């Protein structure tokens, strides 16, 4: 098949010594950052974004993908050992994974997480390879109305799903879109929200906002928190075999399969990333466990850890396919990677597969390599990553702050951008302090220009007739799905409020 031939060519590019090195470096960096509480793959990619412009695009995106997948492995390690998930996608893994660790089964829990992530990621990567031509063909039928509908779907779905408070999600989204309209309008030439400052005529850089919100804002948040006592890692880590015996493997295998099936569709649904499918996978296993004669949930059930891990990585793998073929970011990290594509002058979609096929297929091949590398470095050495927690926090977060400033200075050389970094970083801190989700802000920042341009082009082509926005079958389907998402969100909010009133 053509896809297999292209994939083999991609492996030829990904297996060159330099690209293979970037796969390993990305996996190591991603895992290291994921292990540190409060950090995650989104911060790692944000910090690397201004520092990788010297690399060629293929090497840069191979590095980013390794960081993306590696961050999920690291998050799970801390969720299991310290009950401290690095990101929300690892919360579901804490419920049974941490109980396994406290019961002296930490090595088996880490092995379950590593294999589950490997299974989910591998299955997703295979599907991306074979489904990418279909996704590309679908994206070729998209015009301005379809792209506007897709952006609107991403806006509303992300804002309503990732936050317990829909108004907070919408506020974060509006803030992100508002940042994108600052500057001189490219069509009318009018100044928009510049306050007369020449430094704002070109707008605010997406790189600056990304580093400010995800890195500097996180530093301020961590510094502001009261220190909390943690359980002794050595007491929980235990000894023993870092692998599963036959009985444990047979117990976990069906959960890996079910978690993968649950996670795959969410890779192309703008629902904020892996948070929703991991909780769905955990809930499904819990319901099945209740039917057993000897329920294990609450005692360290291996299936309660296996399913969320497989679901999270399956979602991440499919998200990369949606990003490459449709230009659709379904999470904050994917949105940052879309920004990286634009920094290199690339636009994901059909033209990317036509004009940059070598890079795309080398990147897809690197997904498989990243899964293998992460399995190798996490199965036997997962507990060694926890030693990074011994780094004194003042040194760790001081270094992150330094990298934030150096990265922004390297991209612009302007003191004004450092001031913008500080101001937006404070806003990012306040968002985390008062539980405003970051993902809608990033989605709004990345897709805001696409939505504005598509809306303008659609209305210009129809001489101002708004009916053109819902004139094709694709737009009707997207808006119908949007109504379903909104209805489910409203239903969930009503049920939650009703349960509180009881």
TrEMBL record:
Give the transmembrane ranges. Answer: 20-39, 59-82, 109-135, 147-163, 170-191, 203-223, 322-341, 361-381, 388-408, 414-431, 438-456, 468-490
Which parts of the sequence belong to the DUF112 domain? 20-443
Among Pfam families, the record links this protein to:
TctA (PF01970)
Q: Which UniProt keywords apply?
A: Membrane, Transmembrane, Transmembrane helix
Q: Does the keyword Transmembrane apply?
A: yes
Q: What is this protein called?
A: Tripartite tricarboxylate transporter TctA
Q: Which organism is it from?
A: Brachybacterium ginsengisoli
């Amino acid at each position: 098949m053509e896809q297999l031939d292209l994939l083999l060519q991609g492996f030829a590019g990904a297996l060159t010594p330099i690209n293979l090195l970037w796969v390993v470096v990305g996996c190591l960096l991603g895992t290291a950052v994921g292990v540190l509480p409060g950090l995650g793959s989104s911060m790692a990619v944000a910090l690397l974004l201004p520092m990788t412009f010297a690399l060629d695009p293929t090497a840069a995106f191979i590095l980013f993908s390794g960081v993306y997948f590696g961050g999920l492995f690291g998050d799970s390690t801390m969720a299991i050992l310290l009950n401290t998930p690095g990101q929300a996608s690892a919360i579901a893994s804490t419920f049974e994974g941490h109980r396994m660790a406290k019961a002296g089964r930490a090595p088996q829990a880490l092995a379950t997480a590593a294999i589950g992530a490997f299974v989910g990621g591998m299955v997703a990567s295979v599907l991306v390879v074979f489904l990418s031509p279909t996704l590309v063909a679908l994206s070729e039928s998209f015009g301005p109305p379809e792209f506007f509908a897709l952006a609107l779907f991403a806006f509303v779905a992300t804002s309503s799903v990732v936050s317990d408070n829909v108004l907070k999600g919408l506020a974060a989204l509006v803030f992100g879109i508002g940042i994108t309209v600052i500057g001189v309008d490219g069509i009318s030439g009018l100044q928009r929200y510049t306050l007369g400052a020449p430094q704002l005529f070109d707008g605010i850089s997406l790189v600056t906002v990304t580093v400010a919100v995800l890195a500097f804002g996180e530093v301020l948040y961590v510094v502001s928190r009261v220190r909390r006592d943690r359980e002794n890692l050595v007491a929980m880590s235990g000894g023993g075999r870092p692998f599963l015996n036959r009985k444990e493997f047979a117990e976990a295998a069906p959960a890996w399969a079910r978690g993968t099936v649950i996670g795959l569709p969410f890779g192309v649904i703008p629902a904020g990333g892996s948070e929703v499918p991991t909780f769905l996978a955990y809930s499904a296993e819990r319901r099945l466990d209740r039917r057993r004669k000897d329920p294990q949930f609450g005692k360290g059930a291996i299936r309660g850890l296996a399913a969320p891990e497989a679901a999270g990585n399956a979602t991440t793998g499919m998200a990369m396919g949606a990003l490459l073929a449709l230009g659709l970011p379904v999470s904050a990290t994917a949105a940052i990677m879309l920004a990286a594509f634009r920094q290199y002058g690339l636009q994901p979609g059909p033209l990317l597969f036509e004009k940059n096929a070598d890079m795309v297929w080398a990147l897809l091949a690197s997904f498989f390599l990243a899964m293998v590398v992460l399995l190798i470095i996490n199965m036997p050495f997962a507990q060694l990553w926890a030693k990074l927690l011994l780094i004194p926090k003042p040194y760790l977060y001081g270094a992150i702050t330094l990298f934030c400033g150096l990265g922004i200075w390297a991209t612009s050389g302007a003191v004004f951008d450092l001031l913008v970094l500080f101001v937006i970083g404070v806003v990012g801190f306040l968002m985390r302090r008062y539980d405003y989700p970051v993902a809608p802000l990033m989605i709004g920042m990345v897709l805001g220009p696409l939505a504005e341009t598509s809306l303008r082009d659609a209305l210009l082509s129809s001489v101002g007739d708004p009916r053109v926005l819902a004139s094709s079958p694709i737009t009707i389907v997207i808006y119908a799905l949007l109504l379903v998402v909104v209805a489910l969100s409203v239903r969930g909010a009503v049920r939650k409020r009703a349960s509180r009133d009881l």
